[in-house]
Fold:
Amino acid sequence: MLMGREGPFCQGTDPETGRNRAFRPPLATPGPALFHLSLNKEPRPGFSGGGRVPAIRECAWKGVSRPCYSDGMNDASSTTIVWGGMNRAALDDAYDNGKACPDSATRRDGWIARSAQVRTERPELLDLVYGPRERNRVDVFRCGKTNAPLFAFIHGGYWQRNDKNIFACMAEGPLANGFDVAMIGYTLCPDVTLTELVAETHAAIRFLRKEGPKRGFGAGRLVVSGWSAGGHLTASSLPLDEVDAGLAISGIYDVEPCRLNYLNEKLKLTADEAKATSPILHLPKRRTPLTVAYGAGELPELQRQSNDYHQARLAAGLPSALLPLAPHNHFSIMEELRAPGGKLNGALTTSL
Structure:
């Protein structure tokens, strides 16, 4: 349980884990920061475990200084601090978006129903094959404009659940704003490593740029976007020459805490792979503009991830815009993409 939560327990199925469990409503605002960038030593919004904060051992990787623990990481009942003043149970909750958002299952059901309708209405370019694995497919929806910019969207699910078909309804907003839209599928962990998963999304982006013009799309500017794990994959794609701009939504940019919590049961990350796949530790040399968006009502750790990544980009001289959206949580923020007049669509159009 996240320390500092108040209010009654709710009971229901956690769509992120599939477990039936009790949960409390999400925190309204983040607590004091426990993380900072060593580049400027200024605190950033982050998770507060409440009460006395234990001494933090700093691990500096490529200019980023952060609390780093490994002892007790596999024991959810242990009081051992594993990350940022949190034991394993608290760290599990700090990244449990389904548990923190009581309406997440209802929202997801709505996405599924509307997305099935979108795919039925626009069947021309579904399941284009970009690689050898079953999920190496993209769906493309065209807005009808010649040489329209391409919005390439990467779905979320902590790299281990969901598929592109669920998110077809998110194309409605960009389509109405003059974008062609590509929905990228990828193989889920543990069937592949996170390193392999990242490589698949890069292959999909290269496919869209190379093969798209032969099918009437992808000749203009290409904006990569993604939500949650897709935000991480968006940030990971910014070094590619094929990418002109990015819109990362509620993403993970430092993978290490995911190695230390329940997510690693399927991710199976090593410390080296977590380091190698963390965008905050591998800022691109290319000055690709990026908007970093998140819900102001999200879990504090998700807010910290976005704030820290944005500040790291600024410190490296990279173009970065921070877009906190109130009062959204991790799931409701997607309505700002689905709705043609949503604020994420506003950020998308200005990215060009």
